Amino acid sequence: MNNLIKLVFVLFIFPNTIIAQVSKKTYQYNIDLLHLSGDEVKVSFTPPKNNLKQGKFIIPKLVPGFYQPMNFGQYVSNLVATDKNGKKVTIERLDQNSWMVHDLKHVSSISYQVADGWDSLEKDSHEAKSAGSMFNKDSVFVINYNSLVGYFQEMQDIPYQIKVTKNKDFYASSALDYKQKDQNTDVVWAKDYRQLVDSPVLYCIPDTTSLKIGHTEVLVSFYNKKERHYSKKIALEIENILKNQQAYLGGTLPVNKYAFLIYYEDSNEKGFMGDGLEHSQSTVCLYYSGSMDYLSNALNRVASHEFFHIVTPLNIHSEEIQHYDFLNPSMSQHLWLYEGMTEYATIHMPIKQKMISLEDFEKSLEEKIQGMQEFDNKLSFTEISKNAMERQDQYMNFYQKGPLLGMCLDIRLRELSGGKTGTQNLMLELMKKYGSGKYFNDLDLFDEITKLTFPEIRTFFSDYIEGTQPVPLKEYLAKVGFTYDENTGKISLLPNPDSKQIALRKAWIGQ
């Protein structure tokens, strides 16, 4: 990759305006959300100054956090490149997500149109929407830049300036700092493509509430076609979640700024559907239901899970994620950590922080056990992880079997340490070792965790995560004073636990 070329600009600040002189070594994008053609947004940009005879322009095939091809290039049409005289420059489409632009050094502008990605998804494919973009000229735009903005393979790690033309009443909710140039134009900068894609934005008439949790500034932005001024109510729920997560993570949230972008759509479908996509400083939460009564409970699960992703993979991750290839990514073997341990923290934190009853916690574990039965549990988790795109039929087991493995690992660590340390402590140690732009070698992680903990933990990984031995639920739950009926899938307290079991259970869940 090229070395990072820093963005150089001079700012002249006036009330509600901003003027900037931008370095030519910058992608300068214009996105028009005001003048749509049907459901298509017009995008244009000036490439960074270069001396290239040709360049490969890429719109992502995948993005971090999703493990199936999304092919965002399918929404791009009419891609045209021109020189400074307005003459067209030859472009060759290589595949669904990439184009070869010839004579790139003479290209002055590239323009194209992007269709609403949600329109092409099936009604039961809600989980794919949180990585895509949706355009409604009159009310709302949910924007993930991976579907609107691209990069040249030969010019990566270069800053971006994005100018957005939008409805004068619309407000940009994002972890990035949007500046108002005039009433119809916002400007935002990102240090590179990864940061841009990592920072979605919700454009609509604002319904926002700000929170301060410790040193962390939190923005809660909400959109629903009917409801207004609802973000304050949601913020109260999120504040409770974050304060408990803060305590669970040792008293400090590992991020200075965070944004919850919440889109709620009224639906005639039965039940409640929700999903989210995590980012370093924000999350997109999408909910669909006929009643908002379910929203509070959904926030406790989806928002909590996505926020816990700031631990892993956003702080703790392998080289495959640090140097993510948006066109042909290599998969890490540690989805047990990225998704399984994140989901375990999501169900462990409420009982540890006394947010739920013991019966509710038992029910959560029983649901995971029941969910696990729908998959092939004789497969190696590391192998499924490395082949996540090919094994989509098994992928969701990381959210079922994964947290159960996390539970067993937690109990084993508590047992070996005399109750002193568990997975909470392990994650904090891993963040110290691999956070702040660092990464681990995919093949070394199990050995590195063993060095941080106990020799017996290497056997745990060999048997249950690399290997295919059944999750030792009955054995490990007995260590903390629970019975597990393998026939009914029910979990309950032992009637007469001994002092060792009681002590270990208290260390594990606080009761």
From TrEMBL:
Q: Where is the Peptidase M61 N-terminal domain?
A: 28-203
Q: Which Pfam families match?
A: Peptidase_M61 (PF05299), Peptidase_M61_N (PF17899)
Q: Which residues form the Peptidase M61 catalytic domain?
A: 301-404
Q: What is this protein called?
A: Peptidase M61
